[in-house]
Amino acid sequence: MGGAAYPLDAEDDTIQHGLDYLKTCQQPDGGFAEPERESNPGTSWFAMMAIVAAGQDPRTWTVKGTSAVDYWEHPGEGVQAEGTAELGRMVTLIAAVGGDPHNFGGKDHLADLKARMKPSGQFGDFVYTSYWGIFGLAATGEDTTRPLAWLKEQQNEDGGFGWMPGAESDCDDTSASIMAMTAAGEPKDSPAVKKALAYLKNAQMDDGGFNYGGSSSSNVASAAWVTQAIAAAGQDPSTWTKNERDVVSYLTDLQQPDGPFKWTAQVTDNPCRMTAAAVPALLGRPYPILPGQTSPALPAQTAAAETTPDAAATTPVAAATTDAPAAGGPWEPVTVTDDFGEQVTITKEPLRIVSLAPANTEILFALGLGDRVVGVTDYCNYPEEATTKPKVGGFSTVNIERVVAAKPDLVFAALGNTEEVVTHLRKLGLTVVTLNPDSVQGTLQDIRLVGDATGTEAEADALVTSMQTRIDAVTGKVKGTSERPTVIHAVWYDPIWVSGNGTFQDELIEIAGGKNAFPDLEGWQIVTLEKFLTTDPDVILVNSGTGMDGAENDLIYRYFSEEPRFQNLKAVKEGRVYVVPSDIIDRGGPRIVDAIEMVAADIHPELFGAEEETPAPSGAQSPGFGAFATLAGVLGACLLLRRIG
Description:
Helices cover 40% and strands 9% of the residues. The protein contains 27 helices and 16 strands. A hairpin with a 2-residue loop joins β3 and β4 (245-246). The two termini are 30 Å apart.
């Protein structure tokens, strides 16, 4: 719809079809969920915003007499706003439905939110928690002077904003920051807003859309955030073009005939969430959305329509000009069965390999195949040599064009890449083996699978034997002790996310001679502060850095060690809060044995000796806001589930 009028009217077929689809996402409890899932606060919040943006009353959206507002006003345990960002969203939602933020569901959410603001104006510890706090204050008419000043100080030299102070800029957090600044009264033509818009303009991709960052493909969620930010700044996003493609057309083209919006051009992932994000963007309604609010006036911005080549988007993928040398004699075709039951025949020796997950990459390098790897994800950071390989996107945002350009003989995919991406790659004629280790033994099996598929069976056997020997040494030592300390593995703290049963971390705790303090929780879940305190574990294990990397600031460790309300916990009083490098405890690769040994030493120092509490820092970037908003894609491949926004 290049050149068409923007914003769209609420009666436009695009909007109406999107709303009709959202109605199919509503559940009996009033909330919203993706197909075959239970109601989710994140999806439900965005759905509420889409409903209000379209001028409708969410109280009239009912299933068996229960409205969309009832889901929030009479919440179950999983809907409680525990984190700072969640609290900001709750206040924004209450304002959007015309409720009283001082008395909604029997709680004073606004007072709770204001209590989270530091003297500096920062909410919580991050940029993303702060702009959600600003949205809450702005939506309720509260003073935003201090948080606005703090937020502006976090702007990077390139004009963008990252998910935390000092983090690399990305489109999602920059867009949200623009909306927060303008909602807080920052003039739309101020230097801060102009610089942020310039950052976004330079980030526009060849298809007119936007990605979160790195080499990942463009996606609806990021494009929607940017579209709203452009509108909030008083510009017309339909004039923002790249290669004669504008961002509004990018969004509308990804709507399917039955109403939902796809995640990327190839992937239909979280369609309810994507549709709920696209509707307000196409209506020209930036956050915070309030009832009866009109879209910002959008004068023509001819300067914004000027196309600027994006080096990151237009530079072709670096590809080796020669193939890696063959391993030995003539290749005999081999058929393997991958972790999803697909029988895959490798007809020629794989001399050019693309890896679509960090664990896959670590396995390949451990088997001596590093010289054959011609493409990795943005998150493949080990070994160091892997960081020099051409990048082909993220997890759920695999850049199909870059994968194809790498001319691989074999692609190793993962659960987080989504079935649609794997199917699409196969339709393009690529040979794809998908890995999804669900246990330590599953990891050993996958190493053998990679060995079979690449002709490195001997190397795989040797690696598996070595790993099993080390595992046996740990289990042999803990077998003789009757003491099984209770252990919590925390992957985040605002709100508190822990590993329950059915997770890699749960299995590691068991192998290492401990008991998961939350055995009744399925997978990774939020626990309330009260529940955490009453559990009072013997040992607390926390991910290093920001939860998904080994960055210098061990934020999670600092929180659990320094939080005043935790000082009477047994683990804190006895100095038994330990840091485990995130990459080794969250990946189903060769270093999972390092994690087992480290966790065992933390749980049973009398058997293994003391471990260093702080791992060596690493420069790996955390996924930040975009990953928090669409976290399942990134974390599924990392065998970790953390939700940040």
